[in-house]
Design a protein that fits this description.
Blueprint: H1 2-21, H2 23-38, E1 43-47, H3 53-58, E2 69-72, H4 93-100, E3 108-112, H5 119-131, E4 134-139, H6 141-146, E5 167-170, E6 178-180, E7 189-191, H7 193-214, H8 230-241
């Protein structure tokens, strides 16, 4: 069980650091989300390449999570459509994704990418700045800054997501992502970044709901369709946002 204990300890350490050091930006992000929801607007969640896409899935019609969330699930960036299509490296691709999902001036977009250096990540935040969209980046600044400027996987501008976003939440993803060492094996195994990303996203959701409740606004959340009354409770949200949220 040594490998399991290593992984548990590594994940726990990451989550503890987030709890101790990232409460302020998490609250800022939650306030932006709560403000959008209270005004009757939607907010967007985008994993701009790789497995960060799982966060968008988490926020798509998920029990307990806010209904007015536009989960950006582009096929070119989803592993189920081919993990080596490398659309995240195509210049101009992100701009078209944002256009398809109707991201517009005044919106809030939560962007998840641990490295925060690829073409899609930088194109996304630059396009959002051009449009007047507020970007919350969940990324690892130390990881971004540890990647050489001349690395071929970087955006041509050599910029980092963490240096461009309006709000930055550190996911503390280590170099190489994996966290478990095996004797005689040169590379570590088992990444912790997905757990960190999901923890941060669901924490933002929880805090945003708390903020809304304190303002006297009932948080509009999905109810599990696997419990009595869940489907009926969700119908109003379906009726209101069908055609607005792309993946209902």
């Amino acid at each position: 069980m040594e490998a399991v204990k290593q992984y548990y300890d590594a994940v726990t350490q990451v989550l503890d650091r987030i709890m101790e050091e990232q409460q302020e930006p998490i609250c800022k992000a939650a306030t932006l989300v709560a403000d959008a929801v209270e005004k009757g607007n939607i907010f967007h969640v985008f994993g701009s390449g790789g497995h960060s896409n799982m966060v968008s899935i988490e926020m798509c019609h998920r029990a307990g999570n806010l209904i007015p969330c536009d989960a950006i699930l582009d096929p070119g960036l989803s592993c189920e459509h081919g993990a080596t299509r490398w659309c995240e490296k195509i210049e101009g691709y992100a701009q078209n994704v944002l256009r398809y999902y109707r991201v517009k001036k005044g919106d809030v977009l939560l962007q998840f990418n641990a490295y925060g250096i690829n073409v899609c990540s930088i194109d996304t935040v630059l396009e959002c700045k051009r449009l007047g969209v507020t970007v919350v980046a969940v990324t690892s600044p130390s990881l971004s800054h540890s990647i050489p400027a001349d690395f071929s996987g970087r955006h041509p501008s050599r910029q980092n997501l963490c240096d461009l976003a309006d709000v930055v939440i550190d996911s503390y993803t280590p170099f190489g992502e994996a966290v478990v060492s095996l004797e005689g094996y040169p590379f570590k195994v088992s990444p912790a970044s997905s757990i960190a990303n999901l923890f941060i996203m669901d924490s933002i959701n929880a805090k945003a709901c708390e903020i809304l409740a304190k303002r006297g606004v009932k948080p509009p959340v999905w109810v599990s369709g696997n419990i009595p009354g869940g489907t009926e409770s969700n119908q109003a949200g379906m009726d209101k946002y069908f055609g607005i949220l792309r993946h209902l």
